[in-house]
Amino acid sequence: MREGVPPHAFLKPFFKGVPLISDFMNPSKKGVPRTAKAIFDAWEKRTELVKLQINAESAANDAKTARLRALRLEKEARDAEAARLNALNSPPSQAKQRSKKSG
């Protein structure tokens, strides 16, 4: 490679007007003031986004838990009803006779 020439310079004729990935990954910092307020605002924005993501994940987890609980309660009710019907329809069990001990 030639000194002072960016590695992607040979691609420029092929991709005229198309921004390269490296341009997205390393945006120009001209015009972004590096003041304490700008840094704090960026931190605050990131914090707010993280809080929103955590709340969304929590809501999804709560909904999943409620759905699974409803399914479990429904299954327990079906099992209890089946056990009740089975007890009603089964013949009464015969009492075991006590064995006589000889002695």
What does this structure look like?
The protein has 103 residues and is mainly alpha-helical. It has a domain at 34-88. It is 57% helix and 0% strand. The chain is built from two helices and no strands. The chain has helices at 21-25, 36-89. It is rod-shaped and about 110 Å long. The model has no long low-confidence stretch (mean pLDDT 81).
Structural class: mainly alpha
Number of DSSP strand runs: 0
Approximately how much helix is present in the residues?
55-70%
**Strand-residue fraction?**
under 5%
Distance between the termini: 109 Å
Counted by DSSP, the helix tally is 2
Q: Give helix and strand order, one letter per element, not per position.
A: HH
Which overall shape is indicated by the principal axes computed on the Cα atoms?
rod-shaped
Q: Evaluate the radius of gyration.
A: 36 Å
State the assembly state of the protein chains. single chain
> Main beta sheet, described?
none
Stretches where pLDDT is under 50 for at least 5 consecutive residues are none
Top keywords for this entry?
103 residues; mainly alpha; 57% helix; rod-shaped
Q: Helix and strand layout, with pairings?
A:
Elements: H1 21-25, H2 36-89
